Amino acid sequence: MPGTTAYLAEGPRVGIRHFSYRDAEEFTTLAGKSKELHHPWLFPPADAEAFAVYARRLIEDPAKAGFLVCERAGPAAGRIAGFININNIVTGAFRSGALGYGAFAHAAGRGLMGEGLDQVMRYAFGPLGLHRLEVNIQPANEASIALVRRAGFRLEGYSPDFLFIDGAWRDHQRWAITAEMLPGGH
After folding, report:
1. What is the C-alpha to C-alpha distance for residues 177 and 132, in angstroms, rounded to an integer?
2. What are residue 154's DSSP bridge partners?
3. Lowest mean pLDDT among 14-18, 42-46, 143-147
4. The domain spanning residue 174 has which CATH number?
5. Does residue 2 surpass a pLDDT of 70?
6. How far is the C-alpha of 92 from the C-alpha of 114, rounded, in Å?
7. Domain annotation covers residue 186
8. What is the pLDDT of residue 74?
9. pLDDT (tens digit, 9 = 90+) per residue, 142-151?
10. Torsion, CA 141, CA 146, CA 148, CA 149, rounded to 10
11. Gap between the Cα atoms of 67 and 81, Å rounded
C-alpha cells in the first residue's frame, strides 16, 4: 500500500514486506493490468475475494511466507512492484522452501524483482532459518530463468508434467540455491 515504510529488508530501490489484507485493491488492480505479462505462467488473484483467500494462506499458514516487493523512492514510493512467496516451508533437518513470484507490468524489466529476490533470500537464510530455496520454472519462461540465474541459483533438474497450469500439466526446470551459495553471504 502506498506510503508503507515498515519493511523487513530494504535495498537501494525496493523494500520487502509481508502481505496485508489491505493490499487487495492495489494488488488486484496491478494483477489485472499485468495479465498479458503473466500469461501463461501464472494467474495471481484478480478480485478481492480471490485475494482474501490467497492472502489468508500466506498470512496464516506457517508453511508459507508471502512478501511484497515495493518501490522505495520517488512518486511511486510504496507501490507494489511484485510479489515473492516461499511455499512448502519445511523446518528441522530439511530447512527448505519453494519460491513462487511475479512482477507487475509497470515494474517488469527494471531490475526491481532481482533486488527484491536478493532481500527475500537473505531473509529466508537469516531470520527464517532456511538452508535451501527451490523454484520450478517452465522452460520457455526465459525472463524467470534469467532472474534466478542472476541471483545465483543452479539448475538441478527437469520435471515432466510437474504442475497443472492453464489447463494442462506443464514441464518445469528445477533451480535451487543454498545459504552457502548466496552471493556476499547471508
Report:
1. 6
2. 176
3. 42-46
4. 3.40.630.30
5. no
6. 28
7. no
8. 83
9. 999 999 999 9
10. 130
11. 11
Tell me: pLDDT of 78 over 80. yes
The pLDDT score that the predictor gives to residue 40 is: 85
Is residue 2, in this structure, part of any structural domain at all? Answer: no
Does residue 185 register a pLDDT over 80?
no
- Specify the amino acid at residue 55: A
Q: Please state, in angstroms and rounded to a whole number, the distance separating the CA atoms of residues 144 and 75.
A: 27
Cβ neighbours of residue 147 under 8 Å, at least 6 residues apart? 101, 113, 114, 117
Total number of domains in the chain: 1
How far apart, in Å, are the Cα atoms of 125 and each of 62, 66, 82, 86, 118? 16, 15, 21, 12, 11
Q: For residues 56 and 48, is the Cβ–Cβ distance under 8 A? A: no
CB of 81 closer than 8 Å to CB of 107: yes
Q: Is residue 1 part of a domain?
A: no
Among the listed residues 117, 124, 119, 128, the one whose alpha carbon sits nearest the alpha carbon of residue 151: 117
**Grid coordinates of 132:** 535451501
Cα angle 94-100-102, degrees, rounded to a multiple of 5: 155
In a domain, 16, yes or no: yes
Q: Supply the pLDDT for residue 184.
A: 78
